[in-house]
Amino acid sequence: MCSSATNVRRSMRLKNTPGLESPGSALRHRLKKKLHESASLSPLPSPKRPRSMVPNTNPPVTVPSPVYDEDMTTRGLLRGIIQMETEASLLMSGQPALQASEPNPAEASVSSAGERTEGLSGVELSDLTLNTEPLTHVVRGLSRRRPQRAFSASAFEKQLDQLPEDVSHVSHKGDISEEKADASQDLDWSSGSKSGLNLTLKTPFVEKRIERVGLQRKVSNRRLPSVDAFDEAVQRCLEQGPNQDHSLFQDGKTLEDSSWQKFTLCLNDVTELYVQPKKDDTAGPSAEMERDAEYEREYELERASEIPDSVPLIQEGKDHELESQDDDEEDVVPSSQENMFLSPEDDIVLAPTQAMTESLPESRDVELQDREFVEEVEIGNVVEIEDQKVVEIEDDSIEDENVVEDEVEEVQDENVEEIEDEEVVEAEHRTENPDTSQYLERITRRAHRSEGGGSVLGIPAATRVTKSFGAGLNPREKDLLDFIDGNRDLQDFSDEEREPPGSPEFPQLHPAAELSTPEQRSQQHEASLAEEDVPEFEEDDDAPEELNQSEEEEELMDSGSASQSPELAQEEEEEEDDDDDALSAELSVKTPAFVRQKRVFTSSIEQAMPTALKEVNAGPAPQVAKRAPRQKRQTGVDVLPKSYVMSMFKHFAKTRVASDIYPAINEILKKYFERLADDLEAYSTHAKRKTIEVEDFELLMRRQGFVTDSTPVNILIEKYLPLEYRKLLIPVATSGNKVIPKQRR
Amino acid sequence: MSKKAPRAALKLHMKKNTNIRIGKNADLMAQLNLLVVLHRLAEESRVKAFEEKSATIKVHHVRAVAKKMLKSTRG
After folding, report:
1. Do A680 and B14 touch (CB under 8 A)?
2. pTM score above 0.90
3. Domain limits at B13?
């Protein structure tokens, strides 16, 4: 029997408590005491009385004092509660009393407490009713709490798990108190205590649980957003799934991959993005898929400034879906990357667009439609949101440039100008929603950029845009088509490898495109003076390469512009085919330009990519800001490169630094530099010198208080400057009686 | 944190308004100065951010200390 165990323990305690002859008698004594105590004393002290009784040489007289002392502690409180329970039950035989008495309050040792509890539990379980059991457990928990702190978490969890199982609160309580005493917990649970004390015990348990729960909640809360986002992504994925034709596995793969990746903005893919993914035109069947893939690819391509790759794709795409598809296939891989990149954006955009795309499968018979669809898909969402923009397209052709420029600023400045314009046009029209629009814009921009021929893009973009609207397809579709086409064009152009399809239109269009492009661009530029023209021009100026390329493109475009301009005028309602033709022409025209611009784009795009990526990730808000009219690129705006400044600041700050601090620091530094220059100048003039020398700086630092008699300048030099610079500033003596740097004596 | 400091940009700043010339390694000193100033700015703003019990340095922290800094590093 447990009693034997308890007896053993009791014997141990008995040693401490003289007077206990035998367990049975001790039990009896305790019972009596308990009754007395319960009758006389308050419930709280009662539980401790038994304990006190025991150490007090088992005098029947209850010794509340020790009990009270114990009550102060949590353990004591719990014990008190248990005591109450025991008293209430009145079933508590001497066992609880014994148990209580066993533990010597004086000892108050954990081990002893553990023993006591065990003893109690042992005794209680066997002899006492369920009520007693929980008490014992509780007591056990109390006693063991400290040592078993470490287990509390696991134990508590166990308790939690078992809580639902265990109806009795007491058991729970026991769990709580016993966080560490798993064994005791089990006993409690098994006992299924139903003591009326459940309520009383519940309180502490609740408290404890709250602690844990709170901790747990925090974690769960944190996960929520991710989960939701994930769910959204999942939904999108699902949406895309049915839409995508299984025939186009390649595309599907890309899309699927992208969809997978959509969940997480795969910034890792950024590097991939830089790699020029060749857009593989997927088979026409899954227009949607293709579009999405292409869209993504285009997007990615744009970013990666893989214009040459895209160019052939675009061209091909225009002429032949299959061809385009082939290219797309090639690009699928890279586009997958893009998709991944775009996916997050696309998901948002594509989610609704997918629905649209699905609806549009019919209209997408056109070869180029694949791309267009992609565009439309993305655009569609936007368009839906903003039909008005469609109207704007005509007028916004120029505005688009502006918009594009705005967006471009972030992504890319130079080469992409024109391209951006196109994108902007499309983006603007399509996206009233900042979110979607931004995405589209970005995509368009990228597409433009990837195309490399800003001028060229402008034309196709315009055409595309109009086409999208003009076509009977949903405006979104149109936009998407245009977008896609534009993107494709851009991409195709950039793709050196791809040769423009032999469509006769192409050569014709190319020259026309060339002609038109410059015209369009000029027109666009002029029109967008308010917003983008200035920046565009500036960008062009900034990028002489671009100009050269643009010139070439212009030539090409001019030829095509003539054809395109009228198209543009009517485009809005032109069919996709026309657009395709124009695009194809543009594609062929742009190829050379793209080739050249490839380099520029890659560099610029790469630079822009990080910002673009940030933009993408940032979400609608930053996009909206970008949409503001692009401003002329300012050379002196940034006092110093942001990366450098921020890295230095972060290093010095040692704590986290908000990223939007840079502009403020910039301002400060600007003012500081101005003052600095004035001071230095004054110093030099005072020294009757015409150049600012190192000593001027030394004087400055001394006056600033950075350098004192105790901190020579050289110290600072060593502290802050990199080695290369240090060598230059500090003469270093080397062997051979040489001093570096060379000192002129 | 030894990064390549943009010597050209620094030089540009120093020569902005005047035609005065910059010595050979003076721009290195300029960079040094910049680093020192930036360091102090970061320290001060970090302290300020800490006052507000925020682990990250926010813009208003920096702005608050900027004026004082500009004044102190007048020379």
Report:
1. yes
2. no
3. 7-73
Q: Of A439, A384, A414, A454, whose CA–CA distance to A545 is shortest?
A: A414
The answer to whether the CB of A493 falls within 8 A of the CB of A510 is: no
Q: Is A684's CB within 8 Å of B16's CB?
A: no
Q: Contact, A258 vs A206, CB < 8 A? A: no
On whether residue B16 sits in a domain, the answer given is yes
CA distance A71 to A52: 12
- A291: CB partners within 8 A, 6+ apart: A357, A364, A370, A371, A372, A373, A374, A375, A376, A377, A480, A484
Strand partners, A308: A494
- Give the whole-angstrom CA distance, residue A477 versus residue A362: 11
Peptide bond into A722 cis (omega under 30): no
Structure token digits, residue B55: 């682990």
CB spacing of A655 vs B57 below 8 angstroms: yes
Q: A656 pairs with which residues across the strands?
A: B56
Alpha carbon of A244 to those of A87, A176, A197, A240, A658: distances in Å? 73, 54, 63, 6, 42
Residues of chain A with Cβ-Cβ distance to B31 below 8 Å are 720-721, 725
Residue B2 lies in a domain: no
Is residue A531 within 8 A of residue A403, CB to CB? The reply is: yes
Does any domain span residue B17? yes
* B1 domain residue, yes or no: no
A42 phi-psi bin (left φ>0, alpha ψ -120 to 50, beta other): beta
Facing A723 at nearest CB: one of B2, B22, B29: B2
User: A243-257, A283-297, A529-543, A680-694 — which one is most confidently predicted on average?
Assistant: A680-694
Name every chain A residue with its beta carbon within 8 A of the beta carbon of B3.
644, 647-648, 722
pLDDT of residue A222: 52
Q: How many alpha carbons lie under 13 Å from residue A508 in its C-beta half-sphere? A: 8
The string of pLDDT tens digits covering residues A599-658 is 555 555 545 455 555 545 555 555 555 556 666 665 555 567 788 888 877 777 777 788
List phi, psi (to 5°) of A439: -60, -45
Question: CATH no. for residue B51?
Answer: 1.10.20.10
User: Collapsing DSSP states into helix, strand and coil, what is residue A744?
Assistant: coil
| Percent share of chain A, pLDDT over 70 | 15
Q: What is the ipTM of this complex?
A: 0.91
**Residues from chain A contacting residue B11 (CB–CB below 8 Å):** none
Which among B30, B59, B73 is the nearest to A697, CB-wise? B30
Total tally of structural domains belonging to chain B: 1
